[in-house]
Amino acid sequence: MTTLPVLLTPGKAALSRPSGDGWRDLFGGGALGVVLAALGISILAGNAHAAPSLGGSPGVLAILLKWAPLVFQGFLFNLLVSVLSMLAGTGLGLWLGLGRVSQLQVLRRVSGAVIQFFRNAPWLVLLFYCMFLLPFSVSLPFGTVPLPDAAKAVIGLSLPVMANVAEIVRGGVQSIPLEQWESGEALAFSRRQILWMVILPQCLRRMIPPWMNLYAILTMSTTLISVVGIQDSMTLARAALVAEGRTELFIPMYLMLLSWFFLYCYPIARGTAALERGFRVRI
Amino acid sequence: MQTEPAALVVLSRVEKRFADTVVLRDISFSVARGKSVCIIGPSGSGKSTLLRCVNALVPASSGSIKIDGIEVNDPALDKIALRRKVGMVFQQYNLFPHRTALQNVMMAPIHVLKQDRHEVEARARRLLAKVGLAEKERAYPGELSGGQQQRVAIARSLAMNPLVMLFDEVTAALDPETKKEVLVTIRELAEDGMTCMIVTHEMGFAREVADHVYFTEKGVIVEHGPPGELLARPREERTRAFLNQVL
Q1: Integer Rg of chain A from CA
Q2: Contact criterion met (CB < 8 Å) for A189 and B55
Q3: Of A100, A90, A94, A74, residue with least CA distance to A212
Q4: In a domain, A283, yes or no
Q5: Chain A: residue nearest B84 by CA?
Q6: Are A123 and A160 in contact (CB under 8 A)?
Q7: Closest approach of chain A CAs to the CA of B162, in angstroms?
Q8: Structural domain span for residue B168
Q9: Is B148 among the domain residues?
Q10: Which residues of B are less than 8 Å from A201 in CB distance?
Q11: What is the total count of domains within chain B?
Q12: Quick one: pLDDT at residue A25?
């Protein structure tokens, strides 16, 4: 099997080829180096800046390490929010995307409008609406379920995810040639059977890379929830800075947080690229 | 003239229009059980559309198509029930690429006819052996040649035990070598008594396999007759012109 060279963008092809040395590939050798170097320099610079005024006080690194466990808990909370939003958004988005390719015109139209609305609305605006418009609790047949802020935030983030997943599903379904539908029909399969047994299994592989890409974007966007008053890693980092009251901590503190997100998201981006290479047209 | 056995497929005055274009006009013919007909004619003469009308992939605009008593051109048609009786093989094979050859053959009987998996598997193996691909049951369509894929497609269609098989230019995408293996498979089928409607550009094949040949042009049947007569001594000028071109 050969990959058609004409289908590769000349520059990009060379750039995205893995060099073959394990963890450097996965964690992006150069880029990670830059982040860590910046973190190191900011710590040293912070120490140098603080030295004259504060004689016996602890260094920047020591303070960072003191706060790291707390901020890291916040970071884990961000990841939890990202996973829950992704699950909810994917579940809803699958059905919305199937609605978009339905045979019922009404369903197609409505799904299309919902997708366009949530794809083109700023995430933060959607978050605000969810935080302030959703009730504190919902009454269900079996009792009243409280709706904490974190749950509202998950709902708020899952809406744009839903719309983007729907678009991925629609694109996937439409990428399968119509002849596959036809041959399914000729074998007396129902439309639903063709969709679930013939079409979706074929587009699943094609949908995974954009879906992973979306997840990486979502993970980084979870820091938006700090704006609407939820205690995530950003909030905790700011609280730590306020408690220490030292300006030289500002840059290293956020760089530390940034490096965690980077370490989490970069492998996902690399994995996505690797999968996409695998799906390139083969002859 | 021999006595006609009961007709399995009866078309009368079938017409098909796409917007303002008339694709089929006043098509009437019948195919008796166990017989094979070939439909020949220049590209764009509506041959494929005709086959697609027969299994309701495309609705006919007017006229009547009856298959084993089922009226196809009926808004209340149970398409699933119809398609259980009508198998179709396409020019581009259209196998399911994510399933192996054996799975391709087994899918419809298991999920549409709800037949027992073990029984279906045994039958699918027999069918693959019949089309000469017993050793390829684990291969995915992408690993098979065009001719092999087409033979799997034939086996897949046969697994539904159809009453009639439609072949839509099934060798048009194949090279001469692989063409032959597919044509032999179809000929054996016809000889075994399968009712076949075959759209083809292979005149030699039509002569061998068909009980009756229809020549269509611009959506109408220009002329029809037994292959020996129509292909050797066409009465119509248009038929003669077409045969001169392809032979």
Answers
A1: 24
A2: no
A3: A90
A4: no
A5: A188
A6: yes
A7: 10
A8: 7-246
A9: yes
A10: 98
A11: 1
A12: 64
Please check whether residue B2 lies inside any domain of the structure.
no
What is chain A's mean pLDDT, rounded?
85
Spell out which residues of chain A touch residue B160, defining contact as CB-CB under 8 Å: 187-188
Nearest Cα residue to B179 out of B188, B187, B170: B170
The confidence score (pLDDT) of residue A271 equals 85
B94 in reach of chain A (CB within 8 A): yes
Name the stretches of chain B with pLDDT < 50.
Answer: 1-3
Give how far B86 is from chain A: nearest CA, Å.
8
Residues of chain B neighbouring A190 (CB-CB closer than 8 A):
80
CA distance A101 to A95: 10
Predicted local distance difference test score (pLDDT) of residue B143: 94
> In this complex, is the C-beta atom of B80 within 8 Å of any C-beta atom belonging to chain A?
yes
Chain A residue with the nearest C-alpha to that of B114: A189
pLDDT at A283: 32
Number of compact structural domains in chain A: 1
B115: domain CATH number?
3.40.50.300
pLDDT confidence of residue B109: 96
Q: Which amino acid is at A151?
A: A
Q: How confident is the model at residue A1 (pLDDT cuts 50, 70, 90)?
A: very low
Task: Quote the domain boundaries for residue A136.
Answer: 5-278
> Cα separation of A24 and A133, whole Å?
46
Are residues B80 and A190, on separate chains, in Cβ contact within 8 Å? yes
* Measured distance CA(A173)–CA(A98) in Å, rounded: 8
| Average confidence (pLDDT) over A141-166 | 92
Residue A55, pLDDT above cutoff 50: yes
Q: Helix, strand, coil proportions of chain B in percent (round to 5)?
A: 40, 25, 35
CB spacing of A179 vs B94 below 8 angstroms: yes
A191 at the B interface (CB within 8 A)?
no
Residue B139 domain-assigned (yes or no): yes
For residue A185, give how far its alpha carbon lies from the nearest alpha carbon of chain B (Å): 8
Does residue A68 lie within any of the structural domains?
A: yes
Does B1 fall in a domain? no
Our CA-based measurement puts residue A207 at a distance from the nearest CA of chain B, in whole angstroms, of 15
3-state secondary structure of A183: helix
Model pLDDT, residue B157: 96
DSSP designation for A268: H
CA distance B138 to B140: 7
CB-nearest to B57 from A180, A186, A201 is A186
Q: Domain holding A133: CATH number?
A: 1.10.3720.10
Query: What ipTM was estimated for this complex?
Result: 0.91
User: Which residues, at least 6 apart from B87, have a Cβ–Cβ distance to it below 8 Å?
Assistant: A186, B157, B158, B160, B162, B164, B165, B166
Nearest to B107 among A190, A197, A202 (CB): A197
Q: Is A175 at the interface with chain B, CB within 8 A?
A: no
Task: Judge whether A180 is closer than 8 Å to chain B, CB to CB.
Answer: yes
Q: Judge whether residue A17 has pLDDT over 90.
A: no
Residue A251 counted as domain residue: yes
How is residue B214 annotated by DSSP? E
Q: Residue A179: list chain B partners with CB under 8 A.
A: 90, 92, 94
3-state DSSP assignment of residue A25 = helix
